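TL;DR need structure tokens for one chain.
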Amino acid sequence: MTVFSTILKILNKLKGMLILYTVMLVAITTINQTSGNKVTNFEESKPDMLIVNNDSKNVITDGFVDYIKKHANIKDIDTSNQDKINDAIFYRDVNFVIYIPENFGKDLKEGKEPSLKYKETGDEYAAYSRMLVEKYIKTVKTYKDYYSGRQLIEKVNNIVGNDTKVQVKSSLDTSKMSTMTAYFNFLNYALLAGCVYCITMILASLKQENVRKRTIVSSFNYRKYNRIVLFSNAIVIVAIWILYMILSLILFKDTMFTANGLAFVLNSLVFALCGLSIGFLIGNITTNKAAIGGIVNVVALGTSFLCGCFVPFEYMPDYVLKIAHILPTYYFVANNQLIKTIESFNIDTLKPIFINVGVVLAFTIVFVILSNYISKKKQRV
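>> reply
TL;DR here they are.
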């Protein structure tokens, strides 16, 4: 009880840092909630295109140009000046430039492969533009043997002009799920920066030379003392984790009482235990209080940036994601991303989540083993 009360006194002095990280967590979540767009319908997004037409007075080519104009924003740029076209591509004023060669319509009608040339920005709008072009050309090739002239163009326009009705039947509130995922992703930083900092500072205080010597010369069993320290720090971590879960209930009171919400909670609990082992490892490596703050910030910020807590996986380079695989945070965030999209919980949908949880637990065991090894080695010294 004496050890536990001492830890509580030390923790009381560190409460300012915990409050700071908690305020940051709530502030970022609130910003995400207020800035999140609630999309309830789908609208076609038109790319900015430019057509350089060298095949005038052809019914197929004219139909193709009309089709492109219907599905894209045609920019008014001098097509005879290549420098202006290149500048428009460079500054993203135009996403896609189509160069229609001579005899394009005639070659298409005769079954030949007309050589269209493109210039593009390489983004999603350019990919969509290329899809529009290929769709029209394939449709003309399909019906050219059955129709000709205006009849062919009318048939093709009827086919490519058909709008597909999209009905979203997902039971998930994607807006709330995205915001909640961002909350639990940022929880990595709050747990590592706040909890690990507290644990390492507690261990540093308990391992001060005068305190350590008093513990050694006392009748208190050293192994029992270590178990009490470990158990007390585990209580601290769980208490802080419970605080963050209470905050999540306040922020997402409707969504938390779902299977997805429970999965988020359990996933964060496993990672909190991993954070406990990381704190013990750092606490056994150094007792220098001046160095601990820097180490914890590097660990918390580094893993958060590398593993998708601040920047989603889809916007990160492949080589960064490969590096992130060696960190437990990656698997914690990967689980959050999986949980966000699950509508039906079964063996197939839960299997990748269990695998990631197993990896995080494996990291936890490795960190505990390393902590014990370093601790024993220092005792011998």
